[in-house]
Write a structure and sequence with these properties.
Distance between the termini: 39 Å
Structural class: alpha/beta
Number of helices: 9
Largest sheet: 8 strands, mixed
Number of strands: 8
Shape: globular
């Protein structure tokens, strides 16, 4: 099964354009709110986190070939602050990802979410999930993403963050990336991966999958999954648990039996308040246990 088919299946439970105008893309990323593709939004359950007492908003991160648009939030006081890199869903750095950054900032973190599709396009301008997958995601190579995350970690450490207290969390598409990055950067202290794909077949864009890379983990990863996720099977979760037995860094997977895919996403019908509350507490405890606090 291809990456596109896998991600489409995940979201059933609920020639790439080039970015030429960096300033307008950056402004649009912050102002657009939820992309059309993330509808339906469940307005009654959307959590809104204000920016009072924070330094927050768009920034640009120098990478090898471009400046990557990003959203950053951190306390207004003196740092340096522990860093959490927030890895986007397939929808990009939309309002919910920005809100996650503000939630973390209110807890004392410098949280930064880089726009990891910046070279390929803006998901907010696509009409549907299949369009995002076909026009953007299918052209995003893993190595580009991981290199951009290296640049993000470096930028954060130079702009108010403490590079010795580096953490990461990612959602869906970003959940798989989080597993991979934990096997790349020895400076990463801990990571939390939310319902990211674990198994699959490599291709020109995807070099490996978490289950094949588990033995190489350099940082402990907490995996958070839903037992009712129609796109990520419990069989694949068990394969990952088995693979983690050979990991250098102790990692753990929690499965919420009654939760589906995207159970933390309070803007979607898949939101599961009980699972989300417990999982968020576990994220914070995981970071504290491993020195990201």
């Amino acid at each position: 099964m291809s990456q596109i088919e896998n991600i489409q299946n995940e979201f059933n439970s609920l020639t790439s354009p080039c970015v030429t105008d960096r300033r307008s893309f950056l402004a649009g990323m912050v102002a657009s709110g939820f992309a059309l593709a993330v509808q339906p939004v469940t307005a009654e359950t959307v959590i809104k986190t204000d920016a009072a007492g924070l330094v927050s908003g768009p920034v640009e991160i120098p990478a090898k070939d471009i400046n990557i648009p990003a959203y950053r939030a951190m306390p207004a006081g003196a740092g340096p602050f522990p860093i959490v890199i927030v890895v986007q869903e397939i929808f990009g750095v939309h309002e919910w990802i920005q809100d996650i950054c503000r939630r973390l900032a209110h807890l004392g973190y410098l949280a930064v979410a880089p726009a990891l599709y910046a070279r390929q396009g803006d998901p907010a301008k696509e009409a549907s999930i299949p369009d995002i997958l076909k026009n953007i995601v299918a052209y995003v190579p893993d190595e580009q993403v991981l290199s951009d995350l290296d640049a993000t970690a470096k930028w954060a450490a130079q702009n108010g963050g403490d590079g010795k207290r580096l953490g990461m969390t990612g959602f869906c598409w970003g959940g798989r990336i989080t597993w991979l990055y934990a096997a790349r950067n020895p400076k990463l202290r801990a990571a939390v991966a939310w319902y990211g794909q674990l198994v699959g077949t490599p291709n020109a864009m995807i070099e490996t999958f978490p289950v094949d890379n588990a033995a190489n983990l350099l940082a402990p990863v907490l995996g958070l999954y839903g037992g009712q996720d129609t796109g990520i099977s419990l069989e694949s979760v068990e394969k990952m648990r088995e693979a983690l037995k050979s990991a250098k860094a102790r990692s753990e997977i929690i499965v919420y039996p009654d939760a589906g895919h995207g159970f933390l996403a309070d803007y979607r019908p898949s939101y599961n308040p009980e699972a989300a509350a417990d999982a968020w507490k576990r994220l914070l405890a995981w970071f504290k246990e491993h020195g990201v606090y």
